[in-house]
Amino acid sequence: MSPGKTFFTIGDAAKLIGVVPATLRNWEKAGLVKPGRQNGNYRIYSLKDIERLKKIKYLMRVKGFNIVGVKEYLAAQGEELPAEPVKIEKKGPRIAVGQKLKALREKKGLTLEEVSQGTGVSVSYLSRIESGQVNVSIATLQKLATFYEKNLLYFFEGMDTKEQKLVRAGLGQVLETDEEGIKVELLTALNEPAMEPLLYTVAPGAGRNENISHEGEEFVYVLKGVLEVWLDETERYVVGPGDSLYFKSTQQHRWRNIGDEELVALWINTPPTF
């Protein structure tokens, strides 16, 4: 924790409590805690939230309370709970991606089992993605895009079809990945660019922890913060402000923000992967 830090990302909070981030998301959906949002993008937990989470874990792991029991106990102690459970609405990018995946599968005359065999993604997960019940990670979507011979940008709706050359600061298309703590802004509005310039804004501790590989090359220039990149699990690079990294996308790669501040990086792919 850096000096003066008064809030924590979901990764920070999970480590402090001794659980995985998915557990905190489940507790949030159940209405036990309601973290704030920074820039409307990623969750932030206050010291008060951390104490609440510690108590929830104690009640569930040590005392054996279920969700209802925890709520009743906290209410009896006079602790304020969110007015209602946080609901994740099935709309927008999640539905659009699922519909496009289903349309591609049906156009090719494939079953879910056949897609599963070709991608390594389970049948049940594929079914839930297609129906819009779950969000899909970039790593999984990359596998599906490769299988269907599409780039990732195909799956995101709302792109301007005009041949626009200039993109003003802060007005690039924000690509909804639903990956915690990661914001991706597309810096071109051309329909079929040869390069794909992206601006990544990443919270401390956030990143893509699952290895992916695909055709092409990637260039990364860090504007702010510290980026850690692993290639083929044998090459580790720490990229700071002003540093750049260029590598073949066919290498297995994963990355994360290992600094205490927000990471801002220009990331260029060719050919486009989104």
TrEMBL record:
The keyword DNA damage does not apply. Transmembrane segments: none annotated. Residues 7-76 form the HTH merR-type domain. SMART domains: HTH_MERR, HTH_XRE. Residues 101-155 form the HTH cro/C1-type domain. Keywords: DNA-binding. This is Transcriptional regulator, MerR family. It comes from Carboxydothermus hydrogenoformans (strain ATCC BAA-161 / DSM 6008 / Z-2901).
